[in-house]
Amino acid sequence: MALPNASLWKKAMDDEIKSIHDNNTWILVDLPPNTKPIGCKWVLRKKLNTYGSIDKYKARLAAKGFSQKKGLDYFETFSPVTRFASIRIMFAIASIYNLEVHQMDVKTTFLNGELDEEIYIH
User: Fold this and answer.
1) How many domains does the chain have?
2) What is the distance between the alpha carbons of residues 19 and 32, in angstroms, rounded to a whole number?
3) 58 exposure class (CB count in 10 Å sphere: 0-12, 13-18, 19+)
4) DSSP string, 20-80
5) How many whole angstroms separate alpha carbon 60 and alpha carbon 39?
6) Does the pTM exceed 0.85?
7) 40 touches 17 (CB < 8 A)
8) Which stretch of DSSP H or E encloses residue 101?
9) Residues near 86 by Cβ (< 8 Å), separated by ≥ 6?
10) pLDDT of 25-61, one tens digit each?
């Protein structure tokens, strides 16, 4: 935070915390005894515009899920990704039927699934 653009990174972090708060993603509580929290860290990234200059500073608070043990800390994993071939097929269909394809930028996304477990992060 000693860099000249520290205020821009701070604003990006504040925006992420506000988004987490606004979406009721988690609540701040005291750690119960005999509970091991998952660590987290900030992932900072500069987003560039089409001309290659900085468009915005983006910050994400990421849980260090690699510290969890399958069958103990979690039981299932999901990876919502799209194959590049699926995107190409979508564009091909849109081209064949003369459809318009719109792109949008989602500032914050959250999975719709509900957790059955209580997860604590540090």
Assistant:
1) 1
2) 26
3) middle
4) HHHTT-----PPPTT-PPBPEEEEEEEEE-TTSSEEEEEEEEEE-GGG--BTTTBS-----
5) 14
6) no
7) no
8) none
9) none
10) 888 899 999 888 889 999 999 999 989 999 999 999 8
Residue 73, domain member (yes or no):
yes
Q: What is the tens place of the pLDDT at every residue in 56-88?
A: 999 998 888 777 777 776 777 766 678 899 999
User: Tokens 């209580």 map to which residue?
Assistant: 118
Supply 86's token pair.
Answer: 């699926």
**Do the domain assignments include residue 111?**
no
pLDDT higher than threshold 90 for residue 104:
no
Can you give the residue range of the structural domain that contains 56?
6-96
Q: Tell whether 114 is covered by a domain.
A: no
The Cα 28–Cα 18 span in angstroms is 13
CA distance 41 to 112: 23
